[in-house]
Amino acid sequence: MKDKSNLKRGVIYETILSTYNPDNTPNCAPIGIKYLGDGRVQARIYKGSQTLNNILFRKCAVANITSDPILFYVTALKTRKPPPVKYCKAEHVDAPRIRAADGYIELELMDSRRGLDYTTLNFKIKATYPDHGIPNIYCRASHGLVEAAIHATRIKMLLANNKVREA
Ligand SMILES: Cc1cc2nc3c(=O)[nH]c(=O)nc-3n(C[C@H](O)[C@H](O)[C@H](O)COP(=O)(O)O)c2cc1C
Predict the structure, then answer these.
(1) Across the strands, what pairs with 1?
(2) Tens digit of pLDDT for each residue in 39-88?
(3) Ligand 1 centroid to residue 71 C-alpha, Å
(4) How far apart are CA 35 and CA 24, in angstroms?
């Protein structure tokens, strides 16, 4: 069931987490966040990530909501082409927001658990924008279902044409 922020409990959403580096410059990277319900989200971030270091230092982040694939690409691979990402300040946490995003979830770190390869971080949602509900959050499960449906129809067609081996 979705709550008023438009998030569904147990679902992993692909967002771009923005944080401040120790020298106050902004940093961002795509990171999946899982909605736990009751205004809480969880992220698993791999060792060596600047985002992880920044969150452990400042205890907060902004999850930027976008369905722009270029923004995911640019921020994951740290490419400066197309032009660099533009930022503004978040309202309730000490972290930047990506100006071009469609929505924001401002997050405060509650606790963290360090594993062998990644750290599990639990956050409290401080604010969401727009506050009447976040629009179109990228979720791999929805796109996976469309891909699976395409694949299934191909198999169906091959079987109808007696191409059992290919199916
Ligand atoms: C759609 C997408 C989702 C990602 N999700 C995660 C994630 O949940 N945890 C993680 O550690 N890395 C994830 N990554 C990889 C990081 O974004 C990538 O390693 C990035 O360069 C880390 O940058 P940073 O050092 O500034 O934190 C994801 C990448 C993409 C494209």
Answers:
(1) none
(2) 999 999 999 999 999 999 999 999 999 999 999 999 999 987 767 889 99
(3) 12
(4) 28
Contact 19, 87 (CB under 8 A): no
pTM of the model: 0.91
* 68 touches ligand 1 (CB under 6 Å): no
Between the CA of 31 and the centroid of ligand 1 the distance, in Å, is: 5
| Rounded Cα distance, 19 and 25, in Å | 9
Per DSSP (E only), the strands in 38-143 are 40-46, 60-65, 87-89, 96-98, 103-114, 118-129
CA count, 13 A, side-chain hemisphere, 5: 21
